[in-house]
Each structure stands twice: as structure tokens, then as C-alpha cells.
Amino acid sequence: MKRNKPLALVAGAALITLAACGGGGGDDEGSTGGTDREFGDQGAGTKDEKLQGPAEAIEGATEGGTVTVYVAGDPGPNSLDPTEGWSVLGNSIQQALTSRSLTQYKRGPDGEPVLVPDLATDLGTPNEDYTEWTFTIRDDATWEDGKPITGEEVAWGIQRSLDAEQFPSGPGTEYSKAYFEGGQDYNGPYTDKGKAYDAISFDGQDVTIKMSKPFPDMDYWGAFMAMGPAPLGKASQPPNYGQDPLSNGPYKIEKFTVGEELVLTKNDQWIADSDPARHQYVDEWIFKFDQDQAKVDQIMLSDNSDSQTAIATSIGSDKYKQANEELGDRLVQQTAQCVSTLTPDYTKITDINIRKALAYAYPYNDMWLATGEVPGVTRVPANSVMPPGMAGKVDGFQPDGEQITFNPEKAKELLTEADAVGYQINMVYYETDPLAVAGQKQLTKGLETAGFKVKATPIQVSPYDIWLDPENKINKTLNLRGVNWCSDWPAGSTMLPPLLKTGAVYNTAQFSEASVDDEMDNIATLPLEEQADAWGALDEKIMTDYFPIIPTAFRNDLFVFGTKIGNPSGDAALGAPNYKDFYVMQ
Amino acid sequence: MSQPTAPETLGSLSDETPVDPNSKQAKAIAGRSPMQIALGRLVRDKIAMVCAAVIVFFLVVAIFAPLICKLFGVSTDTVFASQYLDMLGGGMPLKGPPNNGFDPEHPFGIAPQSADDNLAYWVYGCRTSLTIAASATLFASVVGIAVGLLAGFLGGIVDKVLSFFIDLFLTIPFLLAALTIAPILNDRFSLNDNYALIQKFSLVAVLAIFGWMGMARLIRGEVLSLREREFVQAARVLGMPTSRVLIKELMPNLAAPIIISVSLMLPAFVAAEAGLAFLGIGVTSGASWGQTISKAVKYFEEYPLYLWEPLIGVVLLVLSLNLLGDAIRDALDPKTRR
């Protein structure tokens, strides 16, 4: 999932994170307060297919009040069309408040995400080899106009996700098209108008999806709002539908100004009994996009009447110390299920010792400091591609024996061993962002201390525009790139293949090993309960045997809550504030 | 009847005491050129002298930047940030301001987040500011004077064409053009080893290209009135080539407006350079006051010194240049004296 983070915050060698979502992870949730914030062990995500509405009441919750959410440096979604949504910010808001889908996540007792039913009565019924899934849509779910949601509308909504022309940045382009039967040839109901598509069928309230290959993660994919209903026919015609989509969650859209503001009010047609995880305590939500971080920090730290019922989705690193001392439980740290990496070109840097030397030459703490992160808080050391808390991740393994830290002597030894002292590294940095420039200075210094030569080319477009374009003349000269990746759901299948399979778009390392590709294909055919461990084992094997990618950090977010926001907590599934469970203390 | 020592007057128009033209004092006055008179006025202007001293100080700082850095033992080299900064304390320096006392190793303190030395960046920022502003002023005024002279003196079709270009360049929004040119240059030259130098040259070019029109208009207007004067017509009647008329006859008479507009152009370019750097265009690698200001803005509460240093540099330099420019104008053109 794309992460529309401000460039300034994600800066460095790798800029914008793509892909997020997924889950698995309780952390300390900021409950320690004070100055020591440590990461607890991450609990893996679970499922509860029996959970039924209404959602368990939050202790002490009261109704009423208006909550203002300040989103700094992120312009927010351009369109609210559920089929189009594939960003952490947009999905976290809409999936929690306005747009229901087949399944959803609920925050478990330890903060871990639990996959529970949403519009479907359970988590779906697959056939034996996961090539056909059937979901039964509940009878009591309604639209904001009071009409019941039918199986036909859900099937239509799901069918829309196959239209890559109308929804080029929608998640359907990655999953629906790859897994649904005939998805590659069918261009969706708008582009291929009138063409029959029978992989998605409905019978009353039963919706059946046929797959072209085994898709055991369909229940997770069902938690995307793209796997939800849409009104039939012209009513849901893009792009107009994206400005005011019909809501079916506890809130409906009152006002939406792209890049500025989203106002949600109570949807009185929503039936609490039909929803196992959402609440409707707050009267009104106001989301303010593209705010100035310094301004937001001032508002949140001032604790005046405006900020008491406000939430901020980030805090400036310069204010972290003050916030940590003053806010206590109201500063919440949430794991983002993301990894930041450097990707040495596997076709150019063929010696594993040089790749390891790069990992030892990366000045971790200095980079985080210079790019405006809080070392150990918003960025923590990483050991492999799969983030902590993902099911199957092998605990505590280190690709090189112990945690790789900045160690130029060790890097020099490795370089000497590889007979590559003075090895030339070519990379790019985003010169428009002062933080990226500062980060690059630190990185260059680190690499040069370790005996590399560095040529860093300044660019004024997103590095991804360079890295992902095989014809780009600058890209052809590079041998070190990067990518930030977040899981779409807590399974290795959303981390390893997109980054390390031969020919994958975001495989900026150009990594290609037939045995690894085969193993990835093989895992998808294993029984479901064995898959998680198989991904974990493959993760360890790739890092130990090939070390094709240098994981530089696992990422965390910091949220700030006003004094009158009840139940301050994070949503581990999306790495966002847990909008489903907030209330305003009266 | 004896001759009085002083000629009879009906009263004095000036409030200065009448001086006997035959006395020694009067002879000394008679021997001074208009420039000397102006200079004399300037030297007597206290504000102008203070400003000149400030400007000389900045010039010395800019010219001897490497020596000054050596003297204080600081440099613009990148250091590992984590060795000097408090990682959990918002990236604030462990030693020196804002949380601790004076740090002799870094007299101006170090920057949060990156641990760059503030003094070194300030000194080199001054150098960047002055080189870019001075070169842009040089180019802009040479172009402006040439265009103004030609347009005003030749008149006719040449004047029409040149005036059209003056108007055309005045219509192009400066900021917009600067914002557009930066990525184009980057795309073209980013793989070049001299990218930083090219960036500086392009910044000078952008500033000059959008800075010469005022000068050209001013000169053109002056020339239009001058060319009808007898001495110019005499020169033409004598058959002097146009170039000689322009350079020998007209230019000396234009010295005052040229000096005035140059002295006011310089501070405008210093401010423009800082402004562009603040917006993230212009000099992106290397030191620049504008860039330091843009980084320091968010620290105005925790680390005000970090913001004040470049800010005082820019304000002091621009203010001094402006006041000195005003003083020069007053000195050269006493009619406008307040």
C-alpha cells in the first residue's frame, strides 16, 4: 500500500513508502509514558471468524462531541471511491468510518489486529485448494439511504476493482487482476463495457469469486474497502462517485474538499447490530489535510479547548522530547509494518561481501537523525524484510550473526576480503528536500569512511520515478537504490514476492534466483497453516544465503491525542490511529 | 571709494555664509569635481559610513572564509550526527547552545539533526550570498546599460524592438520562471560532475535575466533627454562614431544613475538569493543563508540562536547595502535631499 507520507519525513535514500497495511503487532502503545519507550514483543495477528455485531462497548465511552484530526504534510486522498483507495491515510479513515467491505480488523486486547467479519457473516468459505471463495452477505447491513446491501451490489463493487484504466492506483491492479480468474484479460466493467465476466457471481446474498491460482489470503484481501459494495449502474460511475460515495459505515460524508478537508457526520441508518467492530460514539469527524507540522505540534502541545478533542497523525522529531515528557499516554507509538531498505543492484554488485560491507557502512543513527526521525522510536534496527509481528517471522535471527550496526572497520575488512577497496557506488538523492540532502551527506560520509567511493546524483523527481524506469539514463548508471515497503496484510506473501521475485516492479535490487522464485511459487500451494512458517524460513534463507537487500529500519508512527479523546490507541492493521474505538470524554 | 573685499550682494540665497571667491578657502572649493563633492557629502554621512563598515566586514568574511574557518578550527565537512546530538532529545546538540553553555570548538553552535557547524556554514553562506549577488549585479547592469544606451540613443526601430524585449521580460513572473528552470537544469546536468557550479551559474543567470530591465529603462530615459543636448549634437556634427559618443560623451553623464541603481540592485539580489534558497531552489548543495533559515524555522522555540544567525546576516547585509545605496543617491543628487 502506498504511503502518502510527506517526503520530508520519509526522506533519505529511499523516499516514499509504497504499500502498507497488514498488521500483527502489539507494542507498548505508549503506555509507559515518561522517557523510556521500548518496543515490546509483537504479537502476530489472529482471526476470529465467529465475531458478530454489535461491537463490544468501550469501557466508559460516552456519546457526542466533535473530533478534529490534523494530518500534517499529506494532502490526503484525491478520491473517496473505495475501489481507488490504496493509501494508509485514506484507507484508515474510510475503512474505519464510512466504507464497509467483506472483512475487517478489530483491535485485539494486546493491540494486535484481529481479522473479523464485516459485511460477510464469516471470513468466507474457500474450496479445498483456495481457488474459489464464497462470502455470504448479511441481511441487516444498510446504505446511508436505508436500503439494504445486496449480494449483487457487493459483486458489482468487487468487479469494479478489475478496472485498471479507471482505477490505475487502486489495489485491485495488484490483487484482483493477479488472482481472479481471467483477471488479466478482463479490463473491468467500465473499460470493457458490456463484456461478460463470470469469475464473480452472486446468488441472493452469496457472492462467489473464482481464482486463477490458489489465493489463501482472500479473507485478508477482503478487508480492503475495494472488496465492498457499490451502488449499481450510473450511481457509482467514476470519477464522480469518488467525490461523494454512498456510505454504509457508521458515518457519512458531509463535505469533502480534495487536499483540504473531510467532514463526516453520523449515519443514522447504520445498524450497530450488523457490525462486529465499529462504534458510533463521536458525533462528527473533521479531517484537516496537508497541515503544517510545526503548527500542528503547537496546537497539540498547547492543550487548549480546540486541541483537547483533536488528534494528530504525526509529530515533528524536534518536539518529540517535549511531547514524551508532557503527554504520557496521549503520545501513542504504533508499529507501521513497514521496512526501509537499500537495494544493491544484484546484477552489478555480485559479491555478497560488498553487499554486507554496505550494510556495515550505513550510518543508521546518523541517517535517522539527519532525516528527522527519532532513532529507536520512529525507526528501529531491522534484520530482514518481514517486519516484526508478521506471522512466521523467525525470531531473533541475524543474517550476519548479530545485529548489523554502523561499523566501518568491519566494512573495510569485508571490502578487503572481496578485493574491492574503493568500490564505486552510484546512487541518487532527492535534492529538493533539505532532509534528503542532509541524509545523503551522512550516508556518503559513512560509505566513504568504510572505504567506498560515492557518486550521489541529485534529482528533482521522486527517486521511484528513476528507480522504476528501466529506460532512464540515470537509472542505468546506478548500482545502489532503495525501496520502502509496507505489508498489505500480515503475511509474507505481501512482503517477499513484491520485493524479491524476478521481474517484480519494486524489485529495485534486480534480484533473481531461480530457486527463490520456485520456492515462492511453491509456498502458495502449501496448506494454509504451513505457509506462514514457510515464508519466515524463506525470509531467513534469502537474507542468510544471498543478502540481496539491506533492511535499514522497521518503521513506527507517533500519534498525539487531545486530553478529552477517550481510548487513545493505534490500529496495528493499518499503522494509523484506531478511529473505530475513539470517543470524546464529556 | 575703496573696493570692498567681497562683491556686493543683495542677499544670499543659501544659508551658508558667503565666502570671498578670492580667499584660499574658496579656491579649494573651486578645484573639486562633482564626484569629489559627492564623496565629501558621503563621508560626512554617519549612517553611510557605519553601513560601509558593515559591508566591508561582510566582504572580508566572504573573501577570507577559508582562513576564518581555519582560525576557529571549524569546517563545513559532514560529521556523524549521532556523535554530537542527543538522539532522543529532538536531535539537539549535546554540547553548546541551546541547552548548554558556550562551546569553544563551535562558537556559533552546531545545527540540530545534522550537527553541521553553524559558524562555518554562516561564513560560507555569506560568501555564496555575496558572490551570487555581485555577479548577478554585474551581468544585469552590463546588459541593462548596453540595452538602455542603444535604445535611447539610436531610437526608431531599434528602440521599439529593445523596448519590446524590456516589456516582455517584465511580464514574465520571476519566481515562476526560477521554479521552472531548476528542474530543467537538473534533468540536463544532474550527472555532470560540476553540477554544484552549474547550479550557481544558472542562479546568477536567472537573477540577471530578470534583473536588468529596471536599469535599462532608467538609462534609456536619461539618454533620451541627454541626446538632444548641445554637447552630444556637437559631437555628432563633428562626425564622432556612435560608440565614441555613447562611451565618451553619454556614459560619464550617466554615472550617477548607474551607481545608484547598482547600489540598490545588490541588496535586492542578496535577498532574492536567500529567498530562492529558502524555497529550495538555487543553491541546494553547499552553504546558503536562505537554506539555513528554512531549516531553522521549526526550531525557533527550542534553538532560536540557530535561526538568528543567518537571519541577522541577511538582514544586516541587505539593510546596510540599502542604506548605503540611499546615501549614495542623496550624495550624488542633492536635489532629493530630505
From TrEMBL, chain B:
Principal location listed in the UniProt entry: membrane
GO cellular component, one term: plasma membrane
Record's signal peptide: none
Region called Disordered, residue ranges: 1-26
Biological processes, Gene Ontology terms: transmembrane transport
Polar residues composition-biased segments: 1-25
SUPFAM superfamilies reported for this sequence: MetI-like
Compartment(s) of residence: Cell membrane
Ranges that cross the membrane: 47-68, 132-154, 161-185, 197-219, 254-285, 305-328
ABC transmembrane type-1 domain sequence ranges: 126-329
Topology within the bilayer: Multi-pass membrane protein
Protein keywords: Cell membrane, Membrane, Transmembrane, Transmembrane helix, Transport
Top-level taxon in the UniProt lineage: Bacteria
InterPro entries with a match to the protein in the record: BP-dependent_transpt_permease, MetI-like, MetI-like_sf, OppC_N
Record family assignment: Belongs to the binding-protein-dependent transport system permease family.
Name by which UniProt lists this protein: Peptide ABC transporter permease
Taxonomic source organism: Nocardioides currus
Lineage of producing organism: Bacteria, Bacillati, Actinomycetota, Actinomycetes, Propionibacteriales
